Amino acid sequence: MKRNSTSVDRPKPPSLGITGGIACGKSTVTRMLGELGAATINADDIGREIVAPGCPALAEVVRSFGAECLQPDGALNRRGLGRRVFGNPAALATLNRITHFRIELVLDRRIRAARERALSPPVIAVEAAVLVEAGWFRRVDYVVVVTAQQTTQVARLIHGSNLTREEAEARVNSQVNPAVRLERADFVINGDSSRAEVERQVKRLWDEVTNQDRGGGELLCSARSPENRGGDLTSGPKDRAGSGVSRLAPIAINSPCAARPLTQLRQPRFRRGLEVLP
Length: 278
Description:
This protein is α/β, with parallel strands linked by helices and 278 residues long. It has a domain at 15-44 and 121-276: Rossmann fold (3-Layer(aba) Sandwich). Helix content is 41%, strand content 9%. It has 10 helices and 6 strands. It has helices at residues 26-36, 43-50, 56-65, 78-85, 89-115, 150-160, 165-173, 178-184, 195-213, 226-229; strands at residues 15-20, 39-42, 124-127, 142-147, 187-190, 275-276. Helix 1 packs across helix 9, helix 3 runs antiparallel to helix 5 and helix 6 crosses helix 7. The chain starts with 14 loop residues before the first strand and ends with a strand. Mean pLDDT is 77; it is low at 1-8 and 215-273.
C-alpha cells in the first residue's frame, strides 16, 4: 500500500539499531542513513541529557562516584568519569545501572514519536553502542552491526578523541566481545572500508529495508528468532505481511557468492544467521 499521511493503516517505518564497538564507524553509518532520509536517534546524546545538571541521574552518579566527577560549573566531567569506569568492571556496572534504564525509556518514547508523525520517515535509525548489551535491541526491528579491527578503533580514538594510547586501549578492551553483537545481528557493515565503500553498503542496506517495508516480497526477513531476541513474537519485529520473523543463512563479506543476486542467496532457513552486506 502506498504510504501517505491520511491512511489509517499505513505501514510503520522500520527501525534499525546501529551498533558496534567504539570508533567502529557507527556515527558515519547513522549520518549516511540520515542523509538518505532516515530519522536518527542517538543514545549517547540521550545519555548526556539524562545527566545534565539538576537531573536525578547526575545526583545518583555523584552519590556513587563522588563530587570529583563534576566540573566546576556542576556539569558531569565525562572524561574524568570515563577514566574511572573504563577498565573497572564494577564501576562500569554501577554507572550502567544508573543510566541504562533511563536511556531506554527516552529511546522508546522517541521511536514511538517518530512512528506516530503525520509524515513519518521511511526509516528510523537508532545509534547505540550498547544496543545489545543493554537489551535495547528489543526496541528495534533490525540490528545493524558496524565492525572494525581493534587497531583501527585505537587509532581513531587517539586521533579523533585526543586520548592517550592507554586510554584508548582501555576503552576498547572494556567493551563486550564483538561476537556478542554479531550473535544478534541482522546486517553487518565493514567499518574498516573506505568511506565510498561504507556508503555503498549503507545504500544497499537502505534499499533492502525499504524494499521489504513496501512489500517487496520475501527478500528480507529478520534473522532473529523469538528466543534469539529474548522475547516472544509480540516483543520482536514482524515481517510486513504480519506473519512473524524468519531466520536467514549468512552471507560472507567479499565472498564469491556476494556477486550473485540476493534472491539466490537469501533463502530463509530454520537456523540463526545474519547478512554481511557485500
